[in-house]
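In response to a reviewer's request, we include the raw inputs and outputs for one of the modeled complexes. The two entities were modeled together in a single run.
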Amino acid sequence: MRFISETSSDGLREQLFVLTDVPGVLWTPAADAAGPRPLILMGHGGGRHKKDPDITRRAHRFVTECGFAVVAVDVPAHGDRPLEEEYDRIASENQARVAAGAELAPLIAEFQALVARRTVPEWQAVLDAVQRLDHVGAGPVGYWGVSLGCGLGVPFVAAEPRVRAAVLGLGGASASTPTSTSASAEAAARITVPVEFLVQWDDERVPRDRSLALFDALASPEKTLHANPGKHGDMPEFEIDSTVRFFARHLSLT
Amino acid sequence: MRFISETSSDGLREQLFVLTDVPGVLWTPAADAAGPRPLILMGHGGGRHKKDPDITRRAHRFVTECGFAVVAVDVPAHGDRPLEEEYDRIASENQARVAAGAELAPLIAEFQALVARRTVPEWQAVLDAVQRLDHVGAGPVGYWGVSLGCGLGVPFVAAEPRVRAAVLGLGGASASTPTSTSASAEAAARITVPVEFLVQWDDERVPRDRSLALFDALASPEKTLHANPGKHGDMPEFEIDSTVRFFARHLSLT
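The model returned the following structure tokens for the whole complex.
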């Protein structure tokens, strides 16, 4: 883990780092140096990056209001990472299939499952490295990710026992049938930690029945679906308040 | 409006009253006499009454944490009110229809619409009377009611312009078709205030598609559906916290 820069402002310490070839950012409280503290790993959306405003606004609140550490890294082919020829090829093929009448959502889900084969071990390595730092330590871990961050987050949360609570959403799965289960529904069925699941009721990218099917597939005894009117990008501000309280409730050390 | 008794404990002043022939209870902060303050009208569930534990636990929190006034009255044929032969007759007929294979949920909805023809004007008279009291006053009004309290609450909130925010749920509507709309969906389409809508994902009394159809029918630009696993009676405790914050956000005087 190689640190590239460090700045502090507004009560936040921000450290940019590279772990192997994965660029990341770690935010911690500026004033309070000693860990262990709860850590939230955040997964960004498609076409976005580790310091996207959707990430940084929430990270700021998790750090300043809860005293948590937050880490985010660029997904392959996003942010400061190189393009991936294979992903470009698949994206072009998918565009052609949709133009020929195929349904978009299952193609996206299939693509995200492919990317997750890389991000799950990458994110586990990030947890290993960050939790070895004195100002983070081995506290409880949370995961936050919607849209692409949900598609990659479901297999991550399913695979990683350190994650104790997750906020997911703006993502879906095929409804299971007696003879077939989608990859995301299968991974969701291995998640048992508390989940807050966000749905945009008029989501133009994720059909409503796919959202409900993914929520339905989660095996968590405590899971809450929050649905709000509006499109994929219209999530209301008050859901950030709810997310802060959800993580505070499930990750606090006391 | 005739007051029958008054007690104070735990920071709450509780006054039992009768308005015409409707028995009610009013809770206000014991220490802080002067209004105006926000007022929440609460509708109890089927077979329950104005001082049901589901009502009193929430009322206690609205009063002590938010400084609100809370009023609840017995629905016809409930609590301290006399039996209604007509309702008993309909209930028997409905049991016979269900035994003969009819679907229960639409029959319940039809029955609730009948009862609402009485409760809407009764509850409006309660607001009139209570808001004339010095220790309540004409502040913003909220409505809380699930199950029967939702079935009666939807037409009440639709009809009463003083209501500025409502918590509803554990109730449903038929999905609208081009040629037919259910009474509850029609009333929901006249509701435009912020709504927090509670769904039990495995509700044995309200089919999931009817819950989602009622949420869908609400015309409110701000409406949030909260769905949690479990049956009709299994709503998790943390939803009470969310309700307290929802009303505090929408009804506070400052």
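As requested, we also summarize the result in words. The longest strand of chain B covers residues 2-9. Residues 35 and 128 of chain B are 15 Å apart (CA to CA).
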